[in-house]
Amino acid sequence: MFSMSPRELKRMLKKMGIDIEEYSDVDRVEIFLKNKKLVVTNPQVVAFKTGGQVAFQISGVVREEEVSAQPSPQQPVAEEVKIPEEDIRFVMEQTGASYEEARKALVNSKGDIIQAILAIKSSKG
Question: What range(s) does the NAC-A/B domain occupy (predicted)?
Fold first, then answer.
């Protein structure tokens, strides 16, 4: 197997249309999965950029952590949708739905009256 210096490798990849960027100031990398988090400490991070895509190579010490039920500061907290009473009444009139059904449909559609009406009508068949 032949050896190639990092500089030669960069030059060869550049000719193939792949740019390489090394990140030297990375302290840690966190990858969030549905029920756990992977934490890479003291990582070496390299980005390969080609055709509008970026692929990362990350190496270092990896450990798994459980994800708490509480949202972390980086995760957005869902805003409560404020539904005007007149919108609820309008959806009720148009669909014959109860107050709670109309309100729920409006909340699910983030206040979009048309979507709420369509959702109620499609659920009633």
Answer: 3-71
